[in-house]
Automatic annotation (TrEMBL):
<keyword id="KW-0479">Metal-binding</keyword>
<dbReference type="InterPro" id="IPR003374">
    <property type="entry name" value="ApbE-like_sf"/>
</dbReference>
<keyword id="KW-0808">Transferase</keyword>
<dbReference type="GO" id="GO:0016740">
    <property type="term" value="F:transferase activity"/>
</dbReference>
<protein>
    <recommendedName>
        <fullName>FAD:protein FMN transferase</fullName>
        <ecNumber>2.7.1.180</ecNumber>
    </recommendedName>
</protein>
<keyword id="KW-0274">FAD</keyword>
<dbReference type="Pfam" id="PF02424">
    <property type="entry name" value="ApbE"/>
</dbReference>
<keyword id="KW-0285">Flavoprotein</keyword>
<dbReference type="GO" id="GO:0046872">
    <property type="term" value="F:metal ion binding"/>
</dbReference>
<dbReference type="InterPro" id="IPR024932">
    <property type="entry name" value="ApbE"/>
</dbReference>
<keyword id="KW-0460">Magnesium</keyword>
């Protein structure tokens, strides 16, 4: 997914620029058999780190390479700024036949998130993002869209109009979808599955803060993940002990349509306007795609409705930072926090 264009910058997630991994200095400890091996590369317009616990450096390097190749594959498949990708074909022709099963899976799962969030998460939001982007692009008005423009464009935002029949996907003429709210999380999950298939039982994949963690560190302790303070200080809001779950954050720390606009990059697909309900929402879930999409959903729904949605979902917890910097946690979030 290419996030460099203005339209994608507007989209939903950018999770994890807010997350901090606490894994430094682990190799300085003495573990004669199992060691930590890690590589960081630039993919999906973000920084991706893959870390594994292994007793063999050659094998570890190979498994990491395989996982990076899987992320690259997902990126090429779901990049709607690559004219040859299936997602671009769908957006241009309103249908794609014999689509890659992985693309179909992500679209179906995205519709599930839409149902659970009562439409707060919607991959068909691309026309709204394009509208806002056009206003602040060179030659644009540098003013928000008019209510009439937004209402007209909202006619093209409707996840229920995305029809999946087998491996064929179709939608209403003029609709466009973007998977920027789930593709990164899905890529993390795919990389983790690649590691597992290569025999890795401990490690993590973190793509710009969408992280999924399996097993433990060589000393048997859990992975530690910190949530950055909104004041951008080095202190973490909280440090989570993570094992066999994923973490993602949606936040309004510093990304905007433009410096002049000063509006959130996360738009509400129900209203067509940017969401400014909170500073950030952090979700712990079973998969990175779940955490990714649900963090965005909570951010758009707001404190009350977002928390209510999370409490209804099994195996999912969240932490919300309100606009006045109050910290609100779901009922089970504290079980993941360091004492």
């Amino acid at each position: 997914m290419r996030y460099k264009t203005v339209a994608i910058v507007l989209i939903a997630v950018f999770t994890g620029l807010l997350m901090i991994n606490y894994v430094q200095d682990l190799n300085s400890q003495s573990f004669p058999e199992q060691q930590i091996y890690s590589q960081t590369r630039s993919l999906m317009d973000t920084t991706v780190t893959i870390t594994v616990v292994s007793s063999n450096e050659t094998s570890a390097t190979e498994t990491i390479d395989n996982a990076f190749e899987k992320i690259k594959y997902v990126d090429e498949l779901m990049n709607n700024y690559d004219n040859n990708s299936e997602i671009s074909i769908l957006n241009k022709e309103d249908e794609v036949t014999n689509a890659d099963p992985e693309l179909v899976n992500v679209i179906n799962r995205s519709k599930y998130y839409s149902e659970k969030s009562n439409g707060a998460f919607d991959i068909s939001i691309q026309p709204i993002l394009d509208l806002w982007a056009s206003k602040y692009a060179p030659g644009g008005t540098n003013q928000p869209p008019t209510p009439d423009e937004i209402n007209e464009t909202l006619k093209l935002v409707n996840y229920s109009a995305i029809i999946v029949e087998g491996n064929n996907v179709s939608m209403k003429e003029g609709m466009k979808i973007t998977l920027g709210g789930v593709a990164k999380g899905y890529a993390v999950d795919a990389a983790i599955e690649s590691l597992k298939s290569d025999g890795i039982t401990s490690g993590f994949v973190n793509a710009g803060g969408d992280g999924r963690y399996i097993g433990t560190k060589p000393d048997g302790t859990q992975w530690r993940v910190g949530l950055q303070n909104p004041d951008k200080s080095e202190d973490a809001v909280t440090i989570m002990n993570i094992q066999d779950v994923a973490v993602a954050t949606s936040g309004n720390y510093e990304r905007y349509f433009s410096d002049e606009a000063k509006v959130s990059h996360i738009a509400d697909p129900r209203t067509g306007y940017p969401s400014s309900n909170m500073i950030s929402s952090t979700v712990i879930g079973g998969t990175a795609m779940d955490a990714d999409a649900l963090a965005t959903s909570v951010f758009i729904l707001g404190e009350k409705d977002g928390l209510a949605m999370i409490e209804k979902l099994d195996g999912v917890e969240c932490l919300i930072i309100t606009n006045d910097k109050e910290i609100i946690k779901s009922s089970g979030f504290s079980t993941y926090e360091s004492n």
